[in-house]
Amino acid sequence: MTELHKVPGLTDLHVQQPLDYPINDKLPNTPSRKVPPQFIGRVLSGCLVGATFGAAAGSLTAGLLAGALGAVVGTLGGAATRRRLATAFGKDLPVALLEDVAAIVISIVAVSRF
Asked: The pTM is what?
């Protein structure tokens, strides 16, 4: 595990967010991930995570920029891919569940590398 688990309050965030997001993401009134508040939140979150990993590797700025870029590419690419797959499946829910599984697997692989 990483040293992040020693940060007070961060563990609660890590526990609550995975429980809330999979439910909220499936609700019909949930706004698009591309509207400004959600998009900005994703970019800021990417900056924070990128800066954290960058600082640990000795380059806070590079990490921050990589995190921001990853958030933008992930948000726009993920939305486009989900839209195309939902059209192909004829339903959004199976694609949304597949997206959740992919996010969990990618997160586990990424975190286990550090």
From this structure: 0.73
